[in-house]
Backbone:
């Protein structure tokens, strides 16, 4: 019978001795691994082999941990709530980011955090009317103030604040202009568009400002304006030192065409700003071989501008229109060479104009490729009230950097930019944190960054400029790694650039620092 048969191998009871031997071997293996792990903490030179260091996630913790929900029972991942695909609101994004970055920094998240300015939701957020106006800065406007300007003199920005007060005064017509030079952080117009939108909604929209004739192959773009380039153009950037006489224009780019070069600049049909213009101004060069340029407003009959002259000289052509939506088209004609710098779009005021002068791939030293007198004349004609200089991201990767030489470069750049407008206020803006992975895979700040920041701080104080420490405002050492891990994500995986949401945070932090500076200025006795 089946119940009289001996048990098969599969049903035989396990030998207790074999079981104990297996446990002993497992214990030996575990103990050996533990001793090896402990030795990395005790033996000098083995720190890179340590399985864990303070600040790192606890090994295997994710196997037993549970992610908390955020905001109305939904945990955000990217720009959507986990598991349901519903976009986060700004409040949910701020609540999520506050867990890893702090509440003050997270308070600077805006419409980009919920999908960017291409979405209806973001445009609706941007269209919410500004509830503050006039000169006085209310306490709630400073909510989320992360870092203030450094200004040992206490007067570095007085000229700018005086202009802003005149703009904000009832029945004013004053236009306050800001010129902001920088690298790719500025060329994308994410930081500067945030500042432009907020300042113009707060103090008045006086127009988009300066725009290059075209971007060529560069990742250059501006928001709240429609601009396109086509046809035959050759673009020379100041970073390559291709123009012998150093005439690159206000934005650091010379566009040349011998005919069939086209460009168009138009106000936007909807959005928080940029729906009206009352003047277009072409920045160009006259020279002995100059060509002709057709200019037309709203598809009307074109006028022809002749750029031929006996000698090389900079020139400007201003076209005044009735304030409202308009488009300017230009076309270069055969029979000479047109050399163009850019277009400025303005309104009569009162209000603010914010020129975004980003130069892709630039280091501060590339500004010295501009002829000094030429740059001074460009700045003098534009007449900005605040000059912002923001470089350092590309220098962060330079090996064997000579910081004494860098100090002199920064001094020379500040003096060259200010030469055309010495009465303007000056602000140096430190670079964003630039990260790299160490041998453990942890994201750390590139060693050059803190030293670059310190040199810029010293130069700003010595030259009578204010200083904004973007690096510390982001969180200091390792900030870009934390921005990359944040939800919504504020830094890209190259650890060198912020996402659009991250750049918006930087713009909002700088905007609130400007308001705090204005508030302090108003509290001072005025002569």
Residues:
């Amino acid at each position: 019978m089946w119940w009289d048969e001996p048990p098969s191998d599969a049903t035989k009871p396990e030998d207790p001795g074999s079981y104990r031997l297996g446990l002993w071997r497992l214990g030996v293996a575990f103990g050996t691994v533990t001793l090896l792990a402990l030795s990395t903490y005790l033996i000098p030179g083995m720190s890179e082999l340590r399985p864990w260091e303070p600040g790192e996630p606890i090994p295997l913790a994710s196997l037993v941990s549970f992610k908390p929900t955020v905001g109305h029972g939904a945990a955000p991942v990217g720009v959507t709530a986990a598991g349901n695909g519903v976009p986060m609101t700004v409040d949910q994004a701020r609540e999520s980011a506050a867990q890893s970055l702090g509440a003050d920094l997270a308070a600077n998240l805006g419409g980009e955090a919920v999908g960017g300015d291409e979405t209806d939701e973001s445009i609706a957020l941007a269209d919410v009317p500004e509830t503050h106006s006039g000169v006085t800065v209310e306490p709630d406007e400073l909510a989320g103030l992360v870092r203030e300007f450094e200004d040992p003199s206490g007067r570095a920005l007085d000229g700018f604040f005086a202009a802003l007060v005149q703009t904000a005064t009832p029945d004013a017509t004053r236009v306050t202009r800001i010129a902001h030079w920088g690298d790719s952080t500025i060329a994308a117009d994410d930081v500067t568009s945030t500042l432009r939108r907020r300042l113009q909604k707060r103090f008045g929209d006086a127009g988009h400002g300066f725009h290059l004739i075209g971007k060529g192959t560069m990742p250059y773009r501006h928001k709240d304006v429609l601009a396109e380039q086509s046809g035959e153009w050759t673009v020379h950037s100041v970073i390559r030192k291709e123009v012998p006489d150093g005439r690159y224009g206000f934005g650091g780019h010379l566009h040349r065409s011998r005919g069939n070069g086209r460009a168009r600049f138009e106000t936007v049909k909807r959005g928080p700003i940029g729906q009206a213009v009352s003047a277009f101004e072409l920045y160009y060069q006259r020279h002995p071989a100059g060509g002709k340029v057709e200019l037309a407003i709203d598809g009307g009959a074109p006028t022809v501008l002749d750029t031929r002259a006996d000698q090389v000289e900079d020139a400007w052509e201003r076209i005044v229109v009735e304030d409202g939506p308009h488009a300017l088209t230009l076309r270069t004609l055969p029979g000479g060479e047109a050399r163009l710098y850019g277009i400025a779009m303005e309104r009569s005021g009162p209000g603010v104009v914010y020129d975004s002068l980003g130069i892709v791939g630039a280091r501060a030293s590339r500004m010295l490729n501009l002829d000094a007198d030429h740059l001074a004349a460009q700045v003098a004609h534009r007449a900005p009230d605040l000059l912002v200089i923001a470089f350092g991201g590309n220098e962060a990767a330079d090996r064997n950097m000579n910081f004494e030489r860098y100090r002199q470069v920064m001094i020379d750049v500040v003096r060259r930019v200010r030469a055309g407008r010495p009465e303007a206020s000056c602000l140096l803006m430190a670079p964003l944190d630039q990260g790299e992975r160490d041998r453990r895979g942890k994201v750390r700040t590139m060693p050059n960054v803190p030293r670059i920041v310190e040199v810029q701080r010293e130069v700003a104080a010595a030259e009578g400029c204010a200083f904004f420490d973007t690096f510390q405002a982001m969180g200091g050492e390792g900030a870009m790694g934390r921005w990359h891990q944040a939800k919504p994500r504020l830094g890209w995986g190259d650890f060198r650039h912020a996402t659009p949401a991250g750049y918006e945070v930087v713009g909002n932090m700088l905007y609130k620092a400007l308001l705090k500076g204005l508030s302090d200025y108003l509290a001072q006795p005025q002569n």
User: Anything to note?
Assistant: The two ends are 115 Å apart (CA to CA).
